[in-house]
Structure formats: structure tokens, C-alpha cells
Specification:
By secondary structure, the chain is of the alpha/beta class. Helix content is 49%, strand content 16%. The protein has five helices and five strands; from the N terminus they run E-H-E-H-E-H-E-H-E-H.
Length: 153
């Protein structure tokens, strides 16, 4: 069940955090909110998909890939939601889950990080992924403008 969104400024970055471990999810959420992110927590794939259908998010954190199939299903279905087609997805994995990474990346995840992340590394990774997503969106907009201009010319 998603945690109700907190009131934030219009420029707040929204992160959807999918993790079945409530304690770990709350700890990470606290750290991310302290860094200025707006974090919405969910504990299962269906809740995460429902959430992204109802409101846009800037990034998805997908943790605890004990079942790569559910992570793969989430990524496949997320990419079918028009408003979430290009949303970056960061998978946080344990070192022993490395065999699951390829499957989930092939299903549409953007990147992965091996836990535990030291210090501010999660925040830095998120910032990098958001910067890349912004640049990709700017490129898509420019390509649409160019295509329109070429049709007119």
C-alpha cells in the first residue's frame, strides 16, 4: 500500500520505492527525504504499477530482488504505461543476486547498484540517473521539433 504523498514544492523529485522489507524501506526513505526527495513507498509490484498509472514519478527504486520474475514483470509492465515509458528504474541488489540482474535489465530496468551503498552513493547514483533522464527527454523533444520543422519545410 503506498504511503500517502507528503506536501512538497512543485519542483520536488518524486521517487517510488518498491521494497517488501518495510524497515529497510523506511530507513532509505528517511535518508532520501533528508536529501530533499519526495519518496512514495510501496511493498509489492501491483501497488507500484497502480501508483505509476495514477501519478507520474521521476525515478523508481526497486529493492530486494529475491524474485527476479517479479522485478522483471514490474519493469515490463512499467514500460507499457505511456507516462512511465522512460522512467529510470534503479535496482538495488545484494551481491549474491547478480545473476538476476541481466534478466531484469533485459525487461527494462535502467541500472543497478550493489548493496550496501556507502555514504551518499545512492543519492549520487539517483542524481546521475535523473540528469541522464532529463537529457534524454530534451533530446526526444528536440527530435519531435525537428521532425515537425522538416514536415513544414
Amino acid at each position: 500500500m503506498p504511503r500517502p504523498p507528503k506536501p512538497t514544492g512543485s519542483g520536488a523529485i518524486t521517487i517510488l520505492f518498491l521494497d517488501g522489507d518495510a524497515e529497510a524501506r523506511h530507513r532509505a526513505t528517511h535518508d532520501l527525504e533528508a536529501a530533499g526527495y519526495h519518496v512514495c513507498e510501496v511493498d509489492d509490484v501491483d501497488s507500484a504499477l497502480d501508483f505509476t498509472r495514477e501519478r507520474p514519478v521521476d525515478l523508481v527504486l526497486l529493492d530486494s530482488l529475491a524474485e527476479a520474475e517479479s522485478g522483471g514483470r514490474f519493469c515490463r509492465e512499467l514500460r507499457q504505461i505511456p507516462s512511465a515509458e522512460f522512467t529510470p528504474v534503479l535496482i538495488l541488489i545484494e551481491a549474491e543476486e547478480s545473476e538476476s540482474v541481466q534478466q531484469v535489465l533485459e525487461c527494462g530496468a535502467s541500472d543497478f547498484a550493489i548493496k550496501p551503498l556507502q555514504g551518499n552513493l545512492l543519492r549520487y547514483r539517483i542524481e546521475s540517473m535523473l540528469r541522464t533522464a532529463r537529457m534524454a527527454e530534451e533530446l526526444r523533444v528536440s527530435e519531435k521539433r525537428l521532425a515537425t520543422a522538416q514536415r513544414i519545410a
